[in-house]
Design goal:
Largest interface: A-B, 23 and 20 residues
Number of helices of chain A: 10
Number of strands of chain A: 10
Strand content of chain A: 25-35%
Helix content of chain B: 25-40%
Radius of gyration of chain A: 18 Å
Mean pLDDT of chain B: 89
Largest sheet of chain B: 7 strands, mixed
Order of helices and strands of chain A: EEEHEEHEHHHHEHEHEEHH
Structural class of chain B: alpha/beta
Helix content of chain A: 25-40%
Number of helices of chain B: 8
Shape of chain A: globular
Distance between the termini of chain B: 41 Å
Radius of gyration of chain B: 20 Å
Strand order of the largest sheet of chain A: 6-7-8-3-9-10
Order of helices and strands of chain B: HEHEHEEEHHEEHEEEEEHH
Oligomer: heterodimer
Chain lengths: ~260, ~300
Amino acid sequence: MTQMNEPLLRVDNLTMMYGDRVGCKDVSFELRPGEVLGIVGESGSGKSTLLRSISAQQEPTKGTVEYQTRIDGVRDVYQMSEAQRRLLMRTDWAFVHQNPRDGLRMNVSAGANIGERLMAIGDRHYGNIRSNADSWLGKVEIASERLDDLPSTFSGGMQQRLQIARNLVTSPRLVFMDEPTGGLDVSVQARLLDLLRGLVHDLNLAVIIVTHDLAVARLLSHRLMVMQQGKVIEHGLTDQVLDDPQHPYTQLLVSSILQN
Amino acid sequence: MEQTVKNPADGAPDYNFAYLDEQTKRMIRRALLKAVAIPGYQVPFAGREMPMPYGWGTGGVQVTAAVIGPNDTLKVIDQGADDTTNAVSIRQFFAKTAQVATTEKTAEASIIQTRHRIPEKELREDQVLVYQVPIPEPLRFLEPRETETRKMHALEEYGLMHVKLYEDISRHGHIATTYAYPVMVDDRYVMDPSPTPKFDNPKMNNMAALQLFGAGREKRIYALPPYTKVKSLDFEDHPFEVQTWEDECGMCGARDSYLDEVILDDQGNRMFVCSDTDYCAERQEAGHRGPQHHDQPLGTADRGKAAE
């Protein structure tokens, strides 16, 4: 891995305007393989807009998103053809939605959900797809016997884990997560975070995680970006930002959490 | 070229030849040409209201109306039979509005409009097969958004189609889809072969006749030019297979045709007969006999009803 220190993703001066309104403004950062970046901020601060723009779902008004592809080297994702971009999104990238119903196919079995990405890239051997799906079910701590069950029969936490398995089956290098623990109760959140942390470490995933929960950010992310009104107001190592916040808004954010 | 019905007393004097006006036929022919040029691609067309309900073959009727000429001989089948309501009424419709010759013999027809079946007899280059299609989009049940399915066709993203087959195997142990079985056309477009049983899928491959598909409600036309490669989707370890029957046709003894099961009474007695009535009748004329044939030829009308 000679490219270990090359950035995997480079975002430069990204600006997204909704008419006169600012979605996010002049955001720049780099992300290296295996690095977890948290984006925190209050509701409406532009986190989700930023995530959508970076993950090629919404073309920004200004700025570039460059990605170190496996084959073609560094490419601007918005300069790629749509076919290339969609291929990238379902192989080397993954997107974990807050609501698992947005990221799962609810009317096909868990196995088919996990197998979909494999079939999309041309896997045509049923037995292999199935055993692969089964092993991924194990990795996200769902019993094998649930392989043929519909996701609608799963609990919220299981659905979220299934969504993660479905996304990681093609061994992506970059994972986008939008509030992956939102809507789950605290004990389930803890288990999910534990699982995520393990997977991120084992698979050397680069992750961009959007959350409003500073505890999640502290547990998962190496670096943290704090956003307010569409701008990044503070950016640094997670512990540094949370333990010694510089910007008044970050100070407010950190102090608003109950400390033990 | 305006063509009006030759004998107003017999036909429908107030209508143009084959019911549709010439502008409409021209519009449909344009869609057909595009469909033939891009095998398996669904071409939108401005489907008209026809004097029959959607689901009765309005798409097929419009395609037939656009390609039929005064010298054509029309055969219409419904589930393989020439004598079911749908087939009879469509045949009469064209007999009246276009005054074309009609036939029940596959070999004599120049245009065959069909719902569900492809005739057992091999079709020739000078024949056209017109399908009535209810749902032209093979991806519909997995991806309800039309904008998305079009994009998937455009970018050849067909993984989803295998998700359906995967689901079949995981639930039933084998690919349980028996009709509307998705096919890959000319290594490019995935196509829904309309509700034909998968038994007929291999006949579509490399067929000498032109195959035209019309979906009236959804206003889509697609086509397979003669000698087009049509491959049924499958898995490496679960290859495509057609249905087989342990029984033979009760009337003609055929073992190579698609058989309908007919319940005879409430004692559990049943028989199997060819769904293709012309094929069966021809075999019986040639002296073939099945176990239930008692040399009192069962009228084709009865057989057709029983098959429904």
